[in-house]
Here is the input.
Amino acid sequence: MPTIKKAIITDAGFASRFLPVTKTIPKAMVPIGAKPVMQLCVEECAEAGIEEIIIVATPNTKSKAIYEDYFHNPAENVKALLDKQGKSDRFESVQNVLNFPNIIIIEQDPDLPYGNGSPIVSARQFVENEDAFVVLYSDDLILGQGDVKTLIEEYQKHEEAKAVIAAQEMPEEVWNKYGMIALKENGTLSHIVEKPKTPDLSPSNLTSYGRYLLTPEVFDYLVPSNTGLDGELWTVDAITKLAEHGDVIVAHSRGKWVTTGDPKNYFMAYLEYALSETDYVDGIRDIIDSRRK
Here is the structure.
């Protein structure tokens, strides 16, 4: 049974919808509760047994240095102060970050075309000799059981598969915002219809999002010359090519996918997290009830 040891988490973009905050920090460092979005993605990997994580940061920015500081700086001055104040227990959350699996921070190759496939290509040297590896887009969070574990379990059942992609059922009114999955007769991926303009153009109610398990064969198709819509290098285009040459398993999420890709959805994701993952529920309900009066 293959062991999946490595994951790529992408955060390579300027996040213009989040300006001005993202002129200073990467978008995936905005907090959900007391943790940045990126940490929640890392935790999803760690819980699934991933041993090495490659974070791909935006080139020519402070992003790489910020991630290096967050995941690798032992913050000895903070620990010393907390020890002196008798608050050593507060440092536990920092120690948890320092105890994560091996985390490597790289920048996306600035010579690659724009597109969500370019961060994966930038990390190729770290994963091309693996049986398979996991890719996470840090825009996407999974509440409850993480998808990384589900992807790995499905691959171990179908070792001949070219890839495994996560999927979630979505209501008709949002099909035009996402990539909608078309299935072959055997239930594996046929292709993905990007943002169908009308519901009748959607092949199913299953949405694809940023959780993939890929085999190195993906790099045969994820190359700079294979740009697609709007001249961008798209991961789903390469996955569709894989589906033409073998099975791409569609794994239904056991958690709940939420996106943080823009301020409105980020707020909704934060609220979903607060309601499901914290003890803030009663306080939030009190605020909502008071607004209704």
Q: What stands out?
A: The first helix runs from residue 37 to 47. The chain has one domain: 6-277. The longest strand covers residues 206-214.
